[in-house]
Amino acid sequence: MNHLAHALLAGDDDGLRLGGLLGDFVRGAPDPALPTAVAAGIRLHRAIDAYTDAHPEVLAAKALLPPPYRRYAGILLDMWFDHCLARDFGRWSARPLADFAAGVRALLRREDARLPPALRRFAAYMEAHDLPAGYADPAVLARALAGIGRRLSRANPLDRALPVLQALDAPLQARFEAFFPDLRGHAARWIEAWQGSPADGTHHGPLSPAGRGLG
């Protein structure tokens, strides 16, 4: 899943949400200097990705993509599923998409000092393109796919993928709708287990009464 899904699936805890956004930008074990919730958010991000990769509906969705796009199915579905989530966000969240996306960007601004350089650069890109709300717009999605394609080391068709995804919109939407509730339940159970099993004796709920702030 991509940034919008990871932010939403982290729930109301900004520490988990920041960790979810960090997940694509860090490797290995989380830095022990990170707040407990942020480190847990990185682990949640990885649990979400592992569950997604193994889900039968996701595997079926990948099989819908024709060559040569199927080779990049993981990237394409991550992006397309964020598009599905964004364009029907009111179905999955009581919070308006624009407000939710602004909160994600505000979180990254507040925690700029914690961000690795790659995420700091991406945060600036998010500001410029109204992400993650912008993923509802096919034109924004097309630019994002082309940008990912340019960063890959070998030639690829990502800059031509949007029409292929749009042609498969109905079956991909059906797979998303069958899959995402399962993923949401998996993430909620993961968070519940983490909050209920403090291995280090620290508080594992929101980092402030409002669930805001990481300091």
TrEMBL record:
<dbReference type="GO" id="GO:0008770">
    <property type="term" value="F:[acyl-carrier-protein] phosphodiesterase activity"/>
</dbReference>
<keyword id="KW-0378">Hydrolase</keyword>
<dbReference type="Pfam" id="PF04336">
    <property type="entry name" value="ACP_PD"/>
</dbReference>
<dbReference type="GO" id="GO:0006633">
    <property type="term" value="P:fatty acid biosynthetic process"/>
</dbReference>
<keyword id="KW-0276">Fatty acid metabolism</keyword>
<keyword id="KW-0444">Lipid biosynthesis</keyword>
<protein>
    <submittedName>
        <fullName>Acyl carrier protein phosphodiesterase</fullName>
    </submittedName>
</protein>
<keyword id="KW-0275">Fatty acid biosynthesis</keyword>
<keyword id="KW-0443">Lipid metabolism</keyword>
<dbReference type="InterPro" id="IPR007431">
    <property type="entry name" value="ACP_PD"/>
</dbReference>
